[in-house]
UniProtKB/TrEMBL annotation:
Organism: Stenotrophomonas daejeonensis
Domain of life of the native organism: Bacteria
InterPro entries with a match to the protein in the record: Anthracycline_SecMetBiosynth (IPR052164), Glyas_Bleomycin-R_OHBP_Dase (IPR029068), Glyoxalase_6 (IPR041581), VOC_core (IPR037523)
Lineage per the UniProt record: Bacteria, Pseudomonadati, Pseudomonadota, Gammaproteobacteria, Lysobacterales
UniProt name for this protein: Glyoxalase
Coiled coil region boundaries: none
Database matches in Pfam families: Glyoxalase_6
Positions of the VOC domain: 6-122
PANTHER family associated with the record: GLYOXALASE, GLYOXALASE-RELATED
Length: 126
């Protein structure tokens, strides 16, 4: 339930990468290796089918708020509602707002470094 199902390559800095890696492991279920990262193979056994989106937003976008970064990572998830409930129970900073559209369901959490993280449950079959 708490496993994200895929992203492309995302690289960013932290003043305390070990602490931040542990937060992503403990709360989002990433399999963070000793080298500090996680791998999401596409199309293999147990992995999601799909794609990774790359997009540039205008400087004045509100999409990153209330996060403090100029980027946002979007993680695919299997059950958004269950994950958001689990994150709230774990004391994470989960935003109240969610969105549903033809593209799926979206929710957000703020990581310990102040980065807004998007959680996306794709429509069935995607």
């Amino acid at each position: 339930m708490k496993r994200v199902t895929g992203i492309g390559g995302i690289f960013f800095q932290s003043a305390d990468p070990v602490r931040l890696g542990a937060w992503y492991r403990d709360h989002l279920g990433l399999d963070v290796g000793e080298w500090g990262g996680a791998v999401f193979p596409w199309g293999g056994p147990g992995s999601a089918s799909g794609m990774t989106i790359w997009s540039v937003f205008a400087r004045d976008t509100k999409k990153m708020e209330p996060g403090s970064a100029t980027f946002m990572v979007n993680f695919r998830v299997d059950d958004l509602d269950a994950l958001l409930a689990a994150l709230r129970a774990e004391g994470c900073d989960v935003l109240d707002a969610t969105e549903s559209s033809d593209f799926g369901k979206f929710g957000w959490v703020i990581d310990p470094d102040g980065n807004k993280v998007e959680l996306w449950e794709p429509p069935a079959g995607q």
